[in-house]
Structure formats: structure tokens, C-alpha cells
Amino acid sequence: MEGNMRRSRRLWGAAAVVTTLSLVLAACGGGSSSSGSSGEVDPNGTFTVYGTEPQNTLIPTNTNELGGSKAVDAMFAELVAFKGDNAQPYNQMAESITTTDSKVFDIKIKQGWKFHDGTEVKAKNFVDAWNYGAYSPNGQINSTFFENIQGYDDVHPADDNAKPTTDKMSGLVLKGDYEFQVTLKAPFSVFATKIGYTAFAPLPDVFFSDPKAFAQHPIGNGPMKFVSRTPNVDIKLTRNDDYKGQDKVKFKDLNIKIYASQETAYQDLLSNKLDFIETLPPSALAGSKYKTDLKDNLVIGHLLGISTIAVPYYVPGYDNLDLRKAISMAIDRAQITKTVMNDTYVPADGYVSQGIEGYRPAVCEFCKFDPTAAKAAFAKSGFKGKLTIASNADGGRKEPLVAACNSIKNVLGVECDFVPATDFGQWRSIVTGHKLTGMGRSDWSADYPSIEDFLNPIYRTGASSNDSVYSNPAVDQLLQQADSTPDKDAAIKIYQQAEDAIAKDLPSIPVWDEKGVAAKSKHTKTVTLDFRRRADYSSVEVTK
Amino acid sequence: MIRYVLRRLLQLIPVFFGTTFLIYVLVWAVPGDPFSGKCGQTACPQAYVDLMTEKFHLNDNLILQYLKYLGSLFTGDWGETFNGTSVGELIATSYPITLRLALVAVLIEAVIGLTAGVLTGLRGKGFLDNLVLVSTTFLISLPVFVTAIVLQLVLGTELGIIDTSVSDNPSFGELIVPGIALGSLSMAYVARLTRTSIAENRHADYIRTAIAKGQPNSRVVGVHLLRNSVIPVLTFLGTDLGALMGGAIVTEGVFNINGLGGLIFRGIQNRESATVVGVVVLLVLVYLLMSLIVDLLYAVLDPRIRYD
């Protein structure tokens, strides 16, 4: 490289500008946010929660994941709501829900409730919203939630190529401004609980004229109203002072702050910039570091969900009850939940989550760690070859399953490998396409708190999440019988019989049950984690 | 000169079509159904999948899809994400932030890297040279995410000097630490590059001539030596600014900066192909323009370079 002899001061000038600029920049850097709190509850405070970008439009019938439901559920009030601490259902917008046969439900709604735009909530707002959600050309992600209602097949034909013949379900009949009647296809006793799910929220008249514009600025009837949304940055809500429900909030503004990384959110929480995060990042869980990081700011809930390992019937060699028993008894659940999962899970002992009405301990008799019995069952099964457990490997899914595999390997002396999938999407397409070549992770979280939601969607023949492709006519019959039993306690008893029958077949192996370990900032005095892994906003108190 | 610029700009057109086509095909041709993981443990209703398939023209063949995409791109429509947000708006909000971050990073690289390079290049072997050698080796060997997380943990969580994440619309001041994390690797390269270049040119004939003519030392170094030595560094910095725009994925993730890097990252995670294609198209343009600007700057530094 050679140069030239031209004289110039240009470069020095540029260098000087650069230097000055960088000094100026350095001078305005830094800044710290920690401030002391007086401990007094602030009714006008702001509560900032960890968020992820909603995956769909902010419409109740189109929101099915945590990121969107954090905002949508606060903006809408359904007929029935669930208590934050124990998930008990209670009438929220419903004045009464009456039925004699679990097929025809007469629903009266409370008067005087208003949407955030000032219009009154009437029975037709429910009927219209449900029809919109079910109508197949609207392509709503929650449309299948309406499938029990009579006339669903006319608005949403089972055949994908068929056009719907109408856009109104015949099972929904208006009986006045504040009353409507729902007729189901078949008796379904849990319907009165199911309608507490987000998809069953009412929608104001303004929605139907322009759903797209509405999704940008949703108007609900819930405890909080929409303020603004910046994609990938935040969703801001504020208290609805006219709200008439029980679950009023005790702070003013809700800021759902969207993070790209959970780790960063956790660091922000530790420095009190963020008030709540519902899951802890792997780095905090490692070695139970979170316990020392958080101390009093640890929030422990109980999620209504269950983790199982599906043993598909279509995989050659796996349709063998002794093998299933052997695998199940060879997994040391207590040890894995303690050491690998750092006490964020507890061992599962049945097919229903602990805390659901109708849960009984030790329903699964083969879910106890018993190396001797496991070895005996394995010898009896005559299985030859290698066992595999597949799952998406991200989000801490891999480690417990690797540990389960090792436990099986140590006890049974058989090869066991963990098979990773690249991401959740790819993983689910393997499972729904019935392309598993061994066992697979099969987790379930309840949409509504009922024992029914742990059985029907997973173990009925042809059910939407029947990952093992399990089919037992006796179970199907018990489930149908329970569905059509109007008396709640009697129905639960029959669901329990179905669970017992499933436990004998072991179509999937229950492994653990997530506690739900969340964290709050020191500015947050109280907060409860609800059964769907969200902060129960009505329990939140922030300090000044 | 003008002809050269025009020719270069014309060259951008085939490059633009080529890269966008490749990216479009690569992103949309990924095997697997983009909607398979969208409904948790259950399969999505077919009606939803159908609606989305139609909206994103997924049933058309890829060439037709690409042409439709280009068509709307030329009318200023960058497409929409699955949750109904306009990709154009997303880019418009995050672009300035990434630009700011990249500028901060390049400034840090240039100022610290050049200074260290010039000082060590002039002095030759000694304590300072060893210090720079060791520290640059250290920086080069550290992946960016380690640097970023260490800075965040030590300065943010432990010492409380900085915030652990930046605000929605961060100022230049807030971006200094993320900028250091982002620029640290290139800073080390700049220092090494400048040092070698200076050390080489120090013994060149024209420098000896300048000294013989009795020029003051500052002028010999500042004008004759630096100006010629800085050309390779400038090439590096120019393309680096382009690379930083996209390479900020990790840094933006750690400090929760709502920039282009984060946008691509989330786009890939959620299979939001419209976002990924949009942002990458933009990055391609920025990269091409940056290299053009760098090429033009050569002539300013070295008048012997002619373009026509």
C-alpha cells in the first residue's frame, strides 16, 4: 500500500468530530432505575408484566396462547370466571345458567354491564360472537370450542371442502335482551364450566362492522381497557372504573412488556424494572439459583396441566402392556423432579392434574418407581431393541426426558435415546402426522378447570390430542355417559371410572405435574399465579 | 465518477432480484407446515389453516407467490405478519433503532480500534503492544453473547450502573454498553488491521521522503501515514456497518432492543416469513449501498484511484 503527498487536514477534522461526539455520547450514558418503595399499596400504580408478541389478532375467538391471552383475558369478561387461587368457577356475567338435561341451557345475563365504548352488553352480543367464532370462513383459531352446540356442522362443516349452509348456529336462540338459550348436539354437563374459556366472550356491535380495525383496538367488557399497542414493544391497558365484576383490579395501568429473551426479562425483574414473570429462565433454574435470587419474591402456583410420555400404539413393538408398565415403573420421578427440574415440578400419579375437582392420588398404580417390578415386567414383555423418547429440545424440554431415558436405561438395561425435533412446530407435525418412531412427549394444559378436559381431548377415540392413537370402547362409553350426566358429582364419579380404565391400559405414562414457579418484583405486594400460568390481575397489589 | 455510480446502481437491480428471490424461496420452501405448532397440543382447525393459506398465497407455486410478493412490495406493501401487523410498520419502528445501535458500535470500533492500532503501530514492540495484543485476542475469542451477557450482569444486575434492558426508543446513551458488546469483536479486528497497516507503511519510501523534507512528525503521521494506512480499515468498517445491521440479533436479544435483529430472530422463530423476507431485503439494500459508499470513499483518500 502506498500513499500520496497531498496535504490535507480533512482526516484530522473528521477524527476530531468523531472524538468529540463519542465524548458527548459517553457523558449521557448510564442511569439507574432502582428506587425504594414505601410499602404502601398504590391504587394508581402500574403493574408491568413479562410478555411475548401475540401470535394472532387480539380477538377472543382467535386467541389461544399465553402472549395474546394476557391482554385479551383482562379486556373481556365471560359468562363464567374462575377464581385465581383455586380455579373454582363462579358466575361472572351470567345471572343464572339453568339446565335440566345438560342439553338445553337457559342463560340469563346480568343487566347494566357495559362495553368499553359505552354500549350495553346484551344477550345478542354473546350469540353473535359465538356464531362469528364458529363460522368457518372467519377461520378463527378457537372455532372448535363451539363444536358441542347444535348447528355447528352447518356453519363449520366437518368436510373441509364443503361450504357452510348458514352463518348462524341453530342451537343459539335469543330469548330477550338479557336471556338466551343454548341447545347442544348431545348432553354435555361440563358446558357451564367450559364457557368460562376466552373464546366465549361477548363482542360489541362495532366489532362486526370491521373486525380488522377492531383487532387493532379491541373493545371488551372486562376489568381493563385497551390503551395502545406497539408490536414487539408493549401492550398497554388501563383500569375500567365502570367494571361491575368481582375481579376488579387494584392498580391502574397494566403494561405488558414484550421481551425477546426470558433471561433479559429475569434480569429486569431482579433489578425491579419488571413486576412479574410467569416462568423462570433455565439459567435461574439451574442449581435452584432462583431460590436465593428471589427469596420472598418467589410466587408458587399450581398449574392445571400434566406431562406424560405418549407410547403410540402404531409403533411396532410398543403395543405391549408389560413394556408400558416396565417403562413407567423404571422412571424415578421423585429424583428427576428434584434434581433435574429443581423442584418446579412434582411427580405425577394419575391422568388428572392435582388440584382439579375429582383428582384422586395414586390412580396410576404403575407410576411408582419400582426397579424390581419394572425388571420383571420388562422380562415378561420380551421387548428387544432400543427405546426412544422424542420431543422438541428447546425450552428446557430435553433435560428431564434425557434423565427419564437414563433412569429407564439403568433399571431395565435397555438402550434408550432422546430424539430431538428442531422446534415445537416440527414436533407437532410429527405427532399429528403419526410419524413417531418411539415414545413422545405429550403435555397437556387445561383450557378450563374440569376433569373432563383431561380425558375427552386426549383419550377418546379420535380426539384432537390423542397422541398415542389410543382407542378403548369402554373408555369412550364411560366418557359419553359422564358427559350426559347432568349432576356434577355423579358425572365426576363416572369420569373417574374412565380414568381408572385408562390407567390400566397406560396409553401414555404420566410423569410430572408442573407447579408453576413465577417471580415478582419487590414493588409488588401480592400476586397469584392462576391455573393457566398468568398473573391473576385481581390479586395484584403494587406499592408506591 | 457519475457514470461509475450509475453503473453500480444499475448493478443493484439484478442483485436485488436475485437475493430477494433466493431468500423468498429459502424462507417459504422450508419443509413443514407453518401452522403445525400454532395451536398448542391440538391441531389447528382446518378453517383457520385454509384462511391463512389463502391470505399468504401458500397454495400457489413458489414463482407466482414471489411475483405476488414483489408486486405488493413495489406498491409499498411489505406484507403482514400472522397476527395482522404490517411488516412495513414493524420495519419503520425498528430500523432507526438498529441504525442508532450500529452507529454507536461503529463509532466505538473506529475510535478505540483506530487509536489502539495507531499507537501500537507507531511504537512497535513494547508493553502497550503486548497489552493490545492480549486484549484483542481475548475479545476475538469471546462470542458476542458472552460479552453481552457479562456486561449486562456485571454493570446492570450487580453494580446497577446501567439498566439491564433499554427503553422502547433508546437514546444514544443507553446504547453505549450494547454498542460495546456488539462492536467489541470488530474493534479488535480494527486495532489489529490498523496496527499492521501502520507498521508496514512506516518504512515506506514516501514516509522517509516526508521526514527528509523536514515535515513535523504530527503531519507525517497524521496525513501521510494514517491516510494511506486507513484504506483497508475503511473497507472493513464500511462492510461491517452493513453486517452489524443484521448481526445485532444476539445483542438486541440480550438488551431487549426492538431492532431489526430482534425482528428477524422472532420472525424465524415464529415462521413469520413475511417479516424475515422483508427485513433481509432491506439489509441486502443497506449492504449494497454501504459497499458503494466505501468504494467511493477510496477516491477521497487516494486520488490515484479512478473510477472510469
TrEMBL record, chain B:
<dbReference type="InterPro" id="IPR000515">
    <property type="entry name" value="MetI-like"/>
</dbReference>
<feature type="transmembrane region" description="Helical">
    <location>
        <begin position="12"/>
        <end position="30"/>
    </location>
</feature>
<dbReference type="GO" id="GO:0005886">
    <property type="term" value="C:plasma membrane"/>
</dbReference>
<dbReference type="Pfam" id="PF00528">
    <property type="entry name" value="BPD_transp_1"/>
</dbReference>
<dbReference type="InterPro" id="IPR045621">
    <property type="entry name" value="BPD_transp_1_N"/>
</dbReference>
<dbReference type="GO" id="GO:0055085">
    <property type="term" value="P:transmembrane transport"/>
</dbReference>
<keyword id="KW-1133">Transmembrane helix</keyword>
<keyword id="KW-0472">Membrane</keyword>
<keyword id="KW-0813">Transport</keyword>
<feature type="transmembrane region" description="Helical">
    <location>
        <begin position="276"/>
        <end position="301"/>
    </location>
</feature>
<dbReference type="Pfam" id="PF19300">
    <property type="entry name" value="BPD_transp_1_N"/>
</dbReference>
<protein>
    <submittedName>
        <fullName>ABC transporter permease</fullName>
    </submittedName>
</protein>
<keyword id="KW-0812">Transmembrane</keyword>
<comment type="similarity">
    <text>Belongs to the binding-protein-dependent transport system permease family.</text>
</comment>
<dbReference type="InterPro" id="IPR035906">
    <property type="entry name" value="MetI-like_sf"/>
</dbReference>
<feature type="domain" description="ABC transmembrane type-1">
    <location>
        <begin position="95"/>
        <end position="298"/>
    </location>
</feature>
<feature type="transmembrane region" description="Helical">
    <location>
        <begin position="131"/>
        <end position="155"/>
    </location>
</feature>
<feature type="transmembrane region" description="Helical">
    <location>
        <begin position="97"/>
        <end position="119"/>
    </location>
</feature>
<keyword id="KW-1003">Cell membrane</keyword>
